[in-house]
């Protein structure tokens, strides 16, 4: 089976396994989704979800966050790691949103990646989840690892992995493929000790590097 056929078969099996895949970050507005996604870098969604109710309760919108005392914001973000960098990025993003977009999160990849701390992966997540726009396959550590093991990409740079997946899979599958690979990576194919015997992809997977 060539790579393209394998990719299509993997998409189908993952869709059957995770029909209701969704973003696991808690949010109630596009702004909150953007903040939670930025905070999820180098951190689990679960840990982000533990601190965001307090964060959003205290500073509910870009204007409030932009005006927050930096030390207090850092304290709230401390459990996530990289709290100084994340606090600085969030405040710069909030200020830039207010200055350039009237405090609204823009619905375009080019505009989102201009915001401090917002990379292409974060932008793709926000566009797919909040606006229903398939701007690309969002590649995090799980997607990158699974793309390698499944023989769909030999690249290590996330954007090169994304480009390969985007060539293999139809646009309408991009958003859900990313969500499903993340779920599969967490539940069945973690970095250490993948559970190949229990994996729905075992007959297709060349298990590269396992
Ligand atoms: S067969 Fe093993 S290596 Fe391949 S996706 Fe499944 S758990 Fe991961």
Protein architecture, described:
The chain has 210 residues and is mostly helical. Helices cover 58% and strands 0% of the residues. The chain has helices at 3-17, 30-39, 45-58, 62-66, 70-77, 83-101, 109-112, 120-131, 141-149, 158-168, 174-187. Helix 2 packs antiparallel against helix 8 and helix 9 crosses helix 11. The mean pLDDT is 96. Residues 146, 149-150, 188-189, 194-196, 199, 201-202, 205, 207, 210 line the site of iron/sulfur cluster.
For the CA atoms, what is the radius of gyration?
18 Å
Query: What are the distinct ligands in this entry?
Result: iron/sulfur cluster
Reported for the largest beta sheet, the result is:
none
Count of individual beta strands: 0
Overall helicity: 55-70%
Helix and strand sequence: HHHHHHHHHHH
Mean pLDDT: 96
User: What proportion strand?
Assistant: under 5%
Compact summary:
This protein is an all-alpha fold. Helices cover 58% and strands 0% of the residues. It has helices spanning 3-17, 30-39, 45-58, 62-66, 70-77, 83-101, 109-112, 120-131, 141-149, 158-168, 174-187.
């Amino acid at each position: 089976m060539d790579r393209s056929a394998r990719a299509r078969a993997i998409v189908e099996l993952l869709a059957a396994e995770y029909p209701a895949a969704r973003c696991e970050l808690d949010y109630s507005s596009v702004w909150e989704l953007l903040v939670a996604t930025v905070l999820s870098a180098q951190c689990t969604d679960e840990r982000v979800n533990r601190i965001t109710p307090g964060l959003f309760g205290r500073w509910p919108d870009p204007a409030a966050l932009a005006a927050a005392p930096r030390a207090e914001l850092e304290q709230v973000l401390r459990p996530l790691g990289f709290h100084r960098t994340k606090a600085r990025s969030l405040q710069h993003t909030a200020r830039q949103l207010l200055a350039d977009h009237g405090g609204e999160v823009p619905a375009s990849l080019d505009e989102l990646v201009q915001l401090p701390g917002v990379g292409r992966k974060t932008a793709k997540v926000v566009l797919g989840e909040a606006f229903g726009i398939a701007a690309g396959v969002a590649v995090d550590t799980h997607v990158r690892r699974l793309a390698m093991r499944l023989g769909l990409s030999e690249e290590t740079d996330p954007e090169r992995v994304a480009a390969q997946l985007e060539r293999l899979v139809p646009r309408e599958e991009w958003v859900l493929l990313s969500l499903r690979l993340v779920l599969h990576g967490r539940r069945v194919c973690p970095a250490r000790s993948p559970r190949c015997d229990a994996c729905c992809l075992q007959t297709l997977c060349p298990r590269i590097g396992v």
